[in-house]
Amino acid sequence: MLQISNLDVFYGESHILRNVDLSVPDGQMVCLIGRNGVGKTTLLKTIVGLLKHRSGKIALNETIINSKSPDQRAKMGIGYVPQGREIIPRLTVKENLLLGLEARKKPAKNQEIPEEILTLFPVLKTMLSRMGGDLSGGQQQQLAIARALMGQPQLLLLDEPTEGIQPSIILEIEAAIRRIVATTGISVLLVEQHLHFVRQADYYYAMQKGGIVASGSTSELSQEVIQRFLAV
């Protein structure tokens, strides 16, 4: 699915990502952990094309996408839910969702919300006519994920989807993401600090100072790694 090799990214002359190697297999969830400021968000923005890398390779389904623009990468199957959600507050929930259709490789035949998306996030079904800005933080996060799914991605990038959200909603989002992976075959690359959510992933990578310093199955995620790389 996704293969990153020897990736280097700079902000000006500041070396942010250093020789990053990372892969996300088909139909699996991979979690990227690390304390604040180590480069996790930079990596996601580079994958989606919002930041340029200086060297290295990004491949999606064995196709090199280094030179592709963000909209081209979206149409190739990369969905992105940024930190902070970035829903449009003065559009309704339905209008926000329909914006996700723009990421599809082929134009949508109709302007309807698929029932399977509303099943994943049932709270949205009752709020289609409400303004996005009137939703709670947890509801906005569900809307942002649903909007990304409207583009029919093969790979979904999620940047700290549980940040600032109450525990009950975190569990709902966790369950929805696991169902997405299990039922659709979509691969997920997740940046997350919430330990319970981290353990839902199949595999983890730990970042420090812009590089990958540990990786492995989340079933073998040790307390030592948690203490070293997860923010408290």
Automatic annotation (TrEMBL):
It is an enzyme of class 3 (hydrolase). Coiled coil: none annotated. Residues 2-232 form the ABC transporter domain. SUPFAM superfamilies: P-loop containing nucleoside triphosphate hydrolases. It comes from Fischerella thermalis JSC-11. Keywords: Amino-acid transport, ATP-binding, Hydrolase, Nucleotide-binding, Transport. InterPro entries: AAA+_ATPase (IPR003593), ABC_transporter-like_ATP-bd (IPR003439), ABC_transptr_urea_ATP-bd_UrtE (IPR017780), BCAA_Transport_ATP-bd_LivF (IPR052156), P-loop_NTPase (IPR027417). One of its GO terms (molecular function) is ATP binding. Pfam families: ABC_tran. GO terms for biological process: L-amino acid transport. Belongs to the ABC transporter superfamily. PROSITE patterns: ABC_TRANSPORTER_2 (PS50893). It comes from the Bacteria. This is Urea ABC transporter, ATP-binding protein UrtE. The keyword Endoplasmic reticulum does not apply. NCBIfam families: urea_trans_UrtE. Its EC number is 3.6.3.30.
